[in-house]
Amino acid sequence: MAQRSTRQVVPDVDYPTPKPRILRAKHTVEAAVESIKAGSEKPLLQAATVEAARAAITVRKLVDPAPQTAAVPAPARRARPRRRHRFLAASFLLLFVAPIALTAYYLWTFATDQFASNLAFSVRSEEQGSAFELLGGVTEFSGSSSADTDILFAYLTSQELVSKVNARLDLAQIWSKVTVNNDPFFAYDPSGTIEDLLAHWERKVSIVYDSGTRLIDVQVLAFDPLDAQAVAQALMEESTAMINALSDSARDDAIKYARDELAVALARLKEARQALTRFRNRTQIVDPSIDTRNQMGVLVTLQRQLADALIDYDLLQDTTRSGDPRIAQATRRVDVIQKRIDAERRKLGLGADTEEGVVFADLVGEYEGLIVDREFAEAAYTSALATHDAALAEARRQSRYLAAHIRPTLAQQAEYPERLKTLLLVALSSFLTWSVMSLVYYSLRDRR
After folding, report:
1. Residue 388: how many CB atoms within 10 A of its CB?
2. In sequence order, what are the residues at sequence separation of 6 or more whose Cβ sits closer than 8 angstroms to the Cβ of residue 240?
3. What is the largest CA-CA distance in the chain?
4. Fewest CB atoms within 10 Å of the CB: 89, 93, 110, 353?
5. What whole-number distance in Å separates Cα of residue 103 and Cα of residue 399?
6. Distance separating alpha carbons of residues 365 and 371, to the nearest angstrom
7. What's the CA dihedral at 205, 208, 209, 212 to 10 degrees?
8. Contacts 24+ apart (CB under 8 A), 251-257
9. C-alpha angle with apex 282: 280 to 287, nearest 5 degrees?
10. Quick one: which of 63, 92, 68 has its CA closest to 6?
11. Mind listing the pLDDT tens digit for each residue in 133-190?
């Protein structure tokens, strides 16, 4: 049955209307519309709205003076799917349902089981204390070297290590036992280059480095458990060889520097000794200081004899006549002794009238310079020899080595690929992607 309207039928009666108010309201509304189009102020719109409302109430009272009953609103229309709803549903299927379905289909249909081999190691440095340290109770035991561990961690992901392991085991053949056609994601194409093999190495070999404990955990995946263990064993052996090479290089460098310094000090000492030998051969003097002391003894003796001769000469002058031959003999004795003293002084380099040539003072100065050079060379040689011996002892005491606390394991059950975990991660990422894109779409739509 048709619903009966509650509104009363108003007869077509010509009622008098207040034309001035209606016209004014009409003009006000038109002005408000024009102001809205022109972007004018808001108060004009509010005034026009109020005036239009008053005019409408006045007309209503004149046309339909009888009181009206409340109108019953019409029932709401049935909701219908719109375009945006279809777009949202299609995007949900495309971005959420489809990736999950494709991933599940691939994991449970094409993905091949893989076995894992685990190993863990660290770089240790063994420092054995000397006998003095052992007696004193101060001994350093093995410790971890952070620099060596960082170097090893970088080496584990290098192309050099991949090339060495590939030369030993043929990684391309190990990781391509399952063809690319059967498992295009987890299998390796044997026709790839070394760069492709390095990229696949990073997918098959998981390396975790704990910077706090300096421990490195490695996990190797392969389609056969023996292959996974073989790759892990080769990786550990190559790492051990690299650490040993670092230790040998550091030891050789330390010994080389000490050996070079010792060689320089030895050459300087030899040169100083040869210079001293040439001086002795040239001067026929072993030690000028000894000869100088002997010459000074001779000079002192001559001066003492000169003093005695002068005393004897003075006594003869007091006790004899002027023509006494003993006075002439005493005079000659004094002259001879004085000449000898002058000669000895010139030989020692004393006095103002020294003869030209080499004197003992110059020889002593040259000899002392050579002695100083020799003593300095001997001190430098002694220090270099001590440094060399200390470097040898330090190289023998300190030794780097790879300490493996978990050796390569042999898997008995395939744990990879982790299908359920992978599927959940894909579902989470797909849902987040769909949610973000939907929010972005509706935010752009609401801004229009």
Report:
1. 20
2. 401, 402
3. 196
4. 353
5. 51
6. 10
7. -170
8. 251/395, 251/398, 254/391, 254/394, 254/395, 255/388, 255/391, 255/392, 255/395, 257/391
9. 25
10. 68
11. 433 443 443 444 567 788 888 899 889 999 999 999 888 888 888 776 777 888 888 8
Q: Which helix (H) or strand (E) holds 45?
A: helix 42-63
**Distance of alpha carbon 205 from alpha carbon 175, whole angstroms:** 12
Q: What's the CA gap between 360 and 367, in Å, rounded?
A: 10
Q: What single DSSP character describes residue 356? A: S
3-state secondary structure 212-267: CCCEEEEEEEECCHHHHHHHHHHHHHHHHHHHHHHHHHHHHHHHHHHHHHHHHHHH
Q: 231: burial class by Cβ within 10 Å (0-12, 13-18, 19+)?
A: buried
Helix axes 225-283, 360-397, angle to 10 degrees: 170
What distance, in Å, lies between the first and last C-alpha atoms of the chain?
44
Kind of pairing, strands 205-210 and 215-222? antiparallel
**Is beta strand 215-222 parallel, antiparallel or unpaired with respect to 143-144?**
unpaired
Rounded to whole angstroms, how far apart are CA atoms 438 and 95? 11
pTM of the complete model:
0.56
Q: What is the chain's Cα-based Rg? A: 57
Q: What is the pLDDT of residues 243-279, one digit of tens each?
A: 888 888 877 877 888 888 888 888 888 888 888 888 8
Specify the 3-state DSSP secondary structure of 187. Answer: coil
